[in-house]
Amino acid sequence: MIGTLPIPYPFESAEAQRALVACLAVGVFAPMIGAFLVQKRLSLVGDGIAHVAFAGVGAGLLVGVWPVWTALVFAMIGAIGVEMLRLKRKAAGDLALALFFYVGIAMGAVFASRAGDLELETLPYLFGDPYAVTWTGVATVGALGVIVVVSMRLAGRALFAVVTDEDWSRVAGLPVGVLSMALAALTAGVIVAGMRIVGILLIAAMMVLPVASAQLVSRSFRGTLRLAVAIGAVSSLLGLTIARPLDLAPGGSIVFVAAALFAAVALAKRTAPRALQQEAH
């Protein structure tokens, strides 16, 4: 058993420290994947896959299996299915996403209702509960973070080429299909790892909002990626810090901070040129 560190309130307890480590991990690696999704103009793909993952949660509750495993299976199938439809152009990307989105949430609701109390069983997965995460759960989240970081180091440039211009990537000889499937699989993994921390309904926001904030001030993809990771970590830290004293839902608090940072950056960027023009006159 890992003891507690001498950290002041609100992180003095073992539960709070586990929550802090898990939330920081999600705040770091969720924007790393989100940066590629935003660049690919598939910002809502996280929502679609998350809803398919909810079907996996319901299936796990129904058959008595740890829902994280079944959610991972469903999320992987959903992510790869959407990507296959998009690559083969048998359906528009947004239409394929909508199909998986609605079917996934419906299946999750049906499965979970058959398993027992729908609200009691599914709330921790829908909105997250980082204070209930064990050190094993933290290790799982951390391991996924390592996989994401290593994947970005090994294939980051190739992934950037694919999400920026698929046609050019094919001409250049890059394995577009394989790389797209890998990105989809990593997205599914991030969503499943973060669903107990931030929640299925909110994890996609942590993949997009920090990236959106970073894009407002960064001039390169690498700069956007680095700044998005920093914003994600800060959002997790500040959100979790205010959640406990104010008795707020941690996942919602973290996403609210991320949204507030985006609004602040957007406002600052809009007002700064005006201020400079007034000083010039």
Strand content: under 5%
Unreliable sequence segments: none
How many strand elements?
0
CATH architecture title of the domain at 14-205: Orthogonal Bundle
**CATH structural fold name of the domain at 14-205:** ABC transporter involved in vitamin B12 uptake, BtuC
* CATH C-level category of the domain at 14-205: Mainly Alpha
Largest sheet: none
Average of per-residue pLDDT values:
85
Helical run tally: 11
Structural class: mainly alpha
Globally, the shape reads globular
Radius of gyration: 19 Å
Question: Termini distance?
Answer: 65 Å
Plain-language structure description:
The protein has a domain at 14-205: ABC transporter involved in vitamin B12 uptake, BtuC (Orthogonal Bundle). The chain has eleven helices and no strands. It has helices at residues 14-39, 45-63, 67-88, 93-115, 118-127, 135-164, 166-171, 176-195, 203-217, 221-243, 250-280. It is globular. The model has no long low-confidence stretch (mean pLDDT 85).
List keywords for this structure.
ABC transporter involved in vitamin B12 uptake, BtuC; 80% helix; 281 residues; mainly alpha
Write the layout of secondary structure elements.
Layout: H1 14-39, H2 45-63, H3 67-88, H4 93-115, H5 118-127, H6 135-164, H7 166-171, H8 176-195, H9 203-217, H10 221-243, H11 250-280
Helix pairs in contact: 1-6, 1-8, 1-9, 1-10, 2-3, 2-4, 2-5, 2-8, 2-9, 3-4, 3-8, 6-8, 9-10, 9-11, 10-11
